[in-house]
Structure formats: structure tokens, C-alpha cells
Amino acid sequence: MKKMFLILFIIFLSTLIYGCVQEAVKEPIVAENGDTTQKLPPTEATPVVKEVVEEVVPVEPVVEKTEQFEMFEPVLTYDGAYNGPLYGTSEQVGSASMDNYFKTLDRNGINFFIGMFGISGEPQVDTLISDKGLGEVIDAAQKHPHRIIPFFNPGIGGEDVEQYLGDTLLGWYKETLAASKNIAGNDFIRGFGEIETQEWTARHNDPRVMELISIAKKNKINFMFHPVASKIDDVEKMVEAYPDTIFLIHMFREDLDKSMSRLITIMKEHDNLYFSMDAAHIIHINNNDIIYQYDGTNKQLSISQFVSAFDSKEKSVMNAAISAYKPLVDAVPDKVMWGTEIGPEYAFEPEVFDRAVKISRFVIAGFDKEHQEAVGYKNALRVFGQGVVADAGIKVLNTRSWFECTDAQMSDCDTFCETPDTDVLTAEDEACFQNCVVGKRCREVVEMDTG
């Protein structure tokens, strides 16, 4: 009986305590600052949530897919020659028809080329034409993406431009570069060149030349020029003054021979100097670069004279070129590249151009096996990369099918625009003359003076 009473008492006491607790939790808790909080007891309906640490999965960056250029082999090959891809590093394209030029490049396996284009004045987006200036470069790059590395100069050759050396020449380059960037983008123009310093009385490192290099440096583009043996020490001063600018040079054979040891030393000690071994200087007969020697007004005569001289002396010309260039390649195999330096209009004909590439391939084959691809294309591809891609939205008027302007048509435009008798026109004069020519549906043909 006592035991039963004790059990009932314990049950009653437990019920009483539980009820008090329930009442207590319903009372708000008053903090010293007067705030009240309501604490709720845990119930079966309120599960305890454990902290979950999620595994972080790295997200791969989204890379925009771009069209990749697929390198190609030459159609024209020769037993015993280097028959791999080529990258032309000194291409004087002022006289070339771009459509035919690319057919020539394709059959000869020239995948990329540094083009020395003549661009003058301040190009305007509404007057771009396909056969001249910036419009020619953009039109070609739209049709052949990744293959063109555009360099430019004002289109005035050699000694004729020295009279403008200083503020005038600097202004030309600045204005043309700025206008070209505005139309084609900041990365479209890749260099200045060719700067034909071999024709100038000024030192290669003349302060006025160094100012021109400063513009290239500021815009992070390359600088191509033609030094002579008597000023080879100037070259070292130039590359030392601008260690972050890439310099590309080529030389006449006699200048290379006279300065070989000094040039090798400079190239070994400076990472930013490269040499282009060019077909026009490879084909050297009786102390003449015959591609330029036979340039004349009669295209067929020029072709026949070149072919006759070339075919009669091909073997000796090849051996002499190997002897001339192999010491340079052996000494700095990662600094020597190949180009054509072909400028005269007749030399773009297959009978001439293909022979120039043919002998170049045999000269490259005369170098050590491990150096042949480097000279042929790998050095240039490493240093200058693939070519530009032009915005397809830039409109270029196709003028390639138009006839050349007659003297009378040119005179009419000169009169209409009151064109001054000067080598380079102002932006306004250039635009007026260009619009006049376009209105007559003819094309002005200006042959660049190269060397």
C-alpha cells in the first residue's frame, strides 16, 4: 500500500514540474537592454540540422572557340631540297595582285608572310579599296585569316624619304598607325618596315631614327630595317636601347660578308635581333641581285633575261649562297629566318617567283638537318606568330577588276582636288583624290621602290 502511494506521488510531482516548465518557457526573457526573445523547445517536428560542407568542384574556364589555321605542305617539291612549310619574313608586296599572290604562296608552301605594305596618310573607313593601302591589307586578311603579318611604311622608297626624316616622317607614321588602329583594331598592324636605312646618309642610330623606334616600342610592334656593314655598330646600339622591341634585318651580300663576325656577336648577345635570309639576295650573280637588275618596263623581256641567267648558273648560285649564309645559321640557328624580298612586278610571275623559292629550298637543305625547319618557318612562327584576323564587318570596295587609271583621269583628279606636288598628301587631299578615282571607277597603281 505504501509502495503504491509512493508511485502515485512521484507521478503527480512529475506532472506538476513539467507543467511549470511549460509555463516558464512561454514567459518572455527580458534582457538588461529591454529586448525580448522567444525560445522554442525542440520538438520532434524540428529536426536538428547538421552543417553540410559541400565539395567544391572547380569550374573549367569557358574558352571561346576560334578558327584554327591548319598548316599545309608545298605543291612544288624538289628532290634533295627542303620541302617543308615556309614563312616569308621580307615580302615586298606593293606590286603584287593579292588574289594571284596567294595562289603563288599556296603552291610554294608559304603558310605565313610578313608583308611590307605601303600605307600613307590617314585611312578612312568609308574609302577603303581592295587594291591599295590599308584596304588592300584588310581585304586580303578577311579572305586569308591567320596568314598575313602586316608591317607598313609610307610607300616612299630609300633615299627619297630621308629628306623627311624627323618630325615629318614621325608624323606620317603616327597618323597612319593611329588611323589604321581606329579602323582595324589595336593588334592589326604588327610592325614598321621596311625602313630602308641602307640608302640614308644618317647613322642607323640617329636620334631621329631612334624616335621612330620609340613609336614602335610604345605601340608594342616590331621594327624592320636594312643596315650596312659600315654602320654595323649602330645596330648594336639600337637593339640595346630598345631591348623589348623585336628588330628584323636583312643585308646585301657584300655587307653581310664584311660584317659577318661582328653581326654574329651582336646577335648572340641580344635576344631581340633577327636576320632574314632572302631569295632576292640568294640569287646573286656577278655581284648583282639579278631580280632587281632585270627589272624593266618590258615584263616579258625581264622574265626571259632572269630565267636565262638563273638556269645557266643555278648550281653555282646555290653553292655560293650556302657558303655565304651557313656560318650565320651555324652560329645563331634560332635567329635566322627566310623571305623572298621580291618587289618588281615581273618577279611575281610563276617563272620567276617559283625559281626563287626553289633555289631557297636547296640553300636551306645545305644547312644542318636540325636547322632546316627552324630557318624555313619555325623561328619566324615562334617570334612573330600567326597572322592577323580582320573584322569581317569592315567594308572594302572591290576595285581589283577595274582598269588602271589613265594619265588623263589622274590629271582630272589632281585638278579637281588641287593636289599639291608632294610625296605624301594630307588626310583631306588623300580622301578627295581617292573619292575622285573611285568615282571614275579606275585604280591608281603605285609601284613601291624596294631594296
Task: Furnish the topology, listing elements before pairings.
Layout: H1 2-26, E1 29-30, E2 36-37, E3 86-91, H2 98-107, E4 110-118, H3 133-143, E5 148-153, H4 158-162, H5 167-184, E6 191-195, H6 207-218, E7 222-225, H7 232-241, E8 247-249, H8 253-269, E9 273-278, H9 279-282, E10 284-285, E11 288-289, H10 290-293, H11 299-331, E12 336-339, H12 350-365, H13 369-384, H14 407-417, H15 427-439
Parallel strand pairs: 3-4, 4-5, 5-6, 6-7, 7-8, 8-9, 9-12
Antiparallel strand pairs: 1-2, 10-11
Which descriptor suits the 3D outline?
globular
Low-pLDDT parts are 15-65
CATH superfamily of the domain at 86-384: Metal-dependent hydrolases
Number of helices: 15
Major sheet: order of its strands? 3-4-5-6-7-8-9-12
Give the averaged pLDDT, no decimals. Answer: 87
Sketch the major β-sheet: 8 strands, parallel
What is the name of the CATH class of the domain at 86-384?
Alpha Beta
Indicate the percent of residues in helices. 40-55%
Keywords, please?
451 residues, alpha/beta, TIM Barrel, 15 helices, 11% strand
Q: Could you walk me through the main structural features you see in this protein, from its secondary elements to its overall organization?
A:
- The structure is a single chain.
- With 451 residues, this protein is of the alpha/beta class.
- The chain has a domain at 86-384: Metal-dependent hydrolases (TIM Barrel), CATH 3.20.20.
- 45% of the residues lie in helices and 11% in strands.
- It has helices at 2-26, 98-107, 133-143, 158-162, 167-184, 207-218, 232-241, 253-269, 279-282, 290-293, 299-331, 350-365, 369-384, 407-417, 427-439, and strands at residues 29-30, 36-37, 86-91, 110-118, 148-153, 191-195, 222-225, 247-249, 273-278, 284-285, 288-289, 336-339.
- The strands form 3 sheets. An 8-stranded parallel sheet has the order 3-4-5-6-7-8-9-12.
- Helix 7 (232-241) links the parallel strand 7 (222-225) and strand 8.
- Helix 11 (299-331) packs parallel to helix 12 and helix 14 crosses helix 15 (427-439).
- The longest helix has 33 residues, at 299-331.
- The model is unreliable at 15-65 (pLDDT under 50).
